[in-house]
Amino acid sequence: MKWFDKSEEWTAHGFRYRPGDDLNKTTPIIRPTQLEKQPWLKPVLKKNPSIFNDFFWPDGHIRVTGREYNGLLESPCYQRGEMSCVSCHSMHESDPDDQLARGMRGNQACLQCHDEMSADLTRHTRHAADSSGSNCTNCHMPHTSYGLLKAIRGHTIETPDVTTTLATGRPNACNLCHLDKTLDWTAEQLAKRTGQAKPTVPGEHRTTAASVLWLLKGDAGQRALAAWHMGWQPALEASGSGWQQPLLAELLNDPYSAVRYMAHKALARQPGFGEFEYDFVADEPARLAKRKAALAKWKPSPTNPAAVLLNANGQRLTNQVQQLIQTRDNRPMRLRE
Q1: N-terminal to C-terminal alpha carbon distance within the chain
Q2: What is the span of the domain harbouring residue 262?
């Protein structure tokens, strides 16, 4: 994401950059993680606070699509290695949808550099070799950016970390796949499997699945990401299906049309809801009627976990659901792609 200090001058004269010049001098990249190296950025953010709120997570990592280069810059693979955009992507001989170069759709994108892991990948992933948990990008490039009415892989290559999730609100890879698990469960698993220090986890994150908390009480961006993942096939395989419907039904009347759209798309991937009709831009009475219809259509199952706000009989814990919705982060959001 670039910054033009004098927009009037740019409007009149265009880019001052000429081939051979230092591009970063004429159009520097906004990097909130590097404030000490970008003294010009502090007054810019003070004057234009929406720049930070509309594009970045609280720790300065990008949260919208179209800014993948920002994510790359914050990655150790770029900072301490030789990774660039063309390490994985190609302008030619690639699928226009994602422009991944030939052979880069799977783990080879990572193993081309980390070849020492090739012989025994599961020792690193701690997941079955043929599972989505052994897909490098699912753990290290989870879908934490919003854009195009869906979740997009973040391009900051990082390791799942509950401490970061608690500090920033940015979902971690573990809980975006294991939707039925709490942050406390994730912290325990990371401590056991990787030796990562376990942080102090707040009470609600010890009893309620992280995805449910993001879905019901998170900000609009978190709600959108959580809804999308409830229709993501790898997450359904890891977490099971049949319990997401009543939660997604609540988002059919979300204040944001984009969240409503993504919730319906995920709902349509649930058993019995493939033909469920819904207009995400309908008026509120119509949306409330569809919410009610979705709740009535759902079939409870006693096999569903308590962490997703269901009792031992599989019935939804309505009071707890509503309490979370009442504490929802309703601050206005404008995630600019």
Answers
A1: 11
A2: 159-326
Find out whether 214 and 154 touch, Cβ atoms under 8 Å: no
Burial of 192 (0-12, 13-18, 19+ CB in 10 A): exposed
pLDDT value at residue 214: 99
149: left (phi over 0), alpha (psi -120 to 50) or beta: left
Q: Please tell me the predicted confidence (pLDDT) of residue 144.
A: 98
Which residues sit opposite 29 in a β-bridge?
2
- Is the same domain home to 169 and 289? yes
Give Cα 25 distance to the centre of its chain: 32
Domains in the chain, number = 2
CA–CA separation, 136 and 285 (whole Å): 44
Does residue 216 register a pLDDT over 90?
A: yes
pTM over 0.85: yes
Question: Are residues 318 and 183 part of one domain?
Answer: yes
Residues 6+ apart with CB under 8 A from 265: 227, 228, 231
Clarify whether residues 50 and 164 are in a common domain.
no
- Residue 250 has what pLDDT? 98
Strand partners, 89: 100
In a domain, 76, yes or no: no
Same domain, 173 and 311: yes
pLDDT tens-place string over residues 16-55:
889 999 988 888 898 989 888 888 888 888 888 888 889 9
What are the beta bridge partners of residue 310?
A: 316
Residue spans of alpha helices (H) in 102-244: 108-111, 121-125, 136-140, 162-168, 173-177, 183-194, 204-207, 210-217, 220-229, 233-239
pLDDT above 90 covers what percent of the chain?
Answer: 80
Residues 45 and 173 in one domain: no
Domain boundary among 55, 72, 88: 55
Half-sphere exposure of 308 (CA within 13 A, CB side): 27
